[in-house]
From TrEMBL:
It comes from the Bacteria. This is HpcH/HpaI aldolase/citrate lyase family protein. Keywords: Lyase, Metal-binding. It catalyses: D-glyceraldehyde + pyruvate = 2-dehydro-3-deoxy-L-galactonate. Residues 17-242 form the HpcH/HpaI aldolase/citrate lyase domain. The keyword Lyase applies. GO terms for molecular function: aldehyde-lyase activity; metal ion binding. One of its GO terms (cellular component) is cytoplasm.
Amino acid sequence: MLKPNTLKIALHNKQIQLGLWCALSNSYSTEIVAGSGYDWLTLDMEHSPNDLNSVLTQLQMLGAYPLEPAVRLVKFDKDLVKQYLDMGVRTLILPNVESADQAKEIVQATRYPHQGIRGVAGQHRANRWGRIADYAQTASEQICVLVQIESADGVKFFDSIIAVDGVDGAFIGPNDMAASMGFLGQQHHPDVQRAIQTLPGIAAKHGKSIGILAANEADVQRYLEWGYKMVGLGSDQGLLAKASDTILGNCRQFVKSLK
């Protein structure tokens, strides 16, 4: 049997889940942050050099850790969805969803006929190469579909998007949302933050939870207070860049003090 999708269960139960965005595209660095105890890690394919093989390697390694891996695809494509589901991905984040029709197409791609259009293969990593006999009948129970809302239209039509049956939740992209609203590089603009604040209540009305990527700890606290349940505490590349800058900056100051 496959282990339960703990992220899907937690979101259904309105439990807070803290995670990290992984864009370094390397199983070694991903394993380092996995050991910190995050509830979930997202392997990003949209803004990183991750590919099919690097994601597979990271999934294999993460199987040893008590967390749920998610994968953000570079775009929605039913064949890509099929390939990654067959590879064992169970939590998918699909970028820039702007309508209920898009959300319905995404859900359809994750379900076998007659509930959907997912292609059927007898043996693949997800069904342990055919050893899980009832995989096709039960797969949807562990698949978590998260639609990413990152535009003004996504916000405008969010009520109908999050209401789609089979959408387990949404994930908000503040940077793209700000750009779409005319505030490029200003995710903390009051208009952007007001839009972000409205979304958890809309999701809750449909019995669903949503997530967001936070830029700093103050954002984390504010988003949790606003009702976000799945919060990303930055990214692996951000952590590395910040730590590298900090230690070098501190030591440069010390060197100056010696002159």
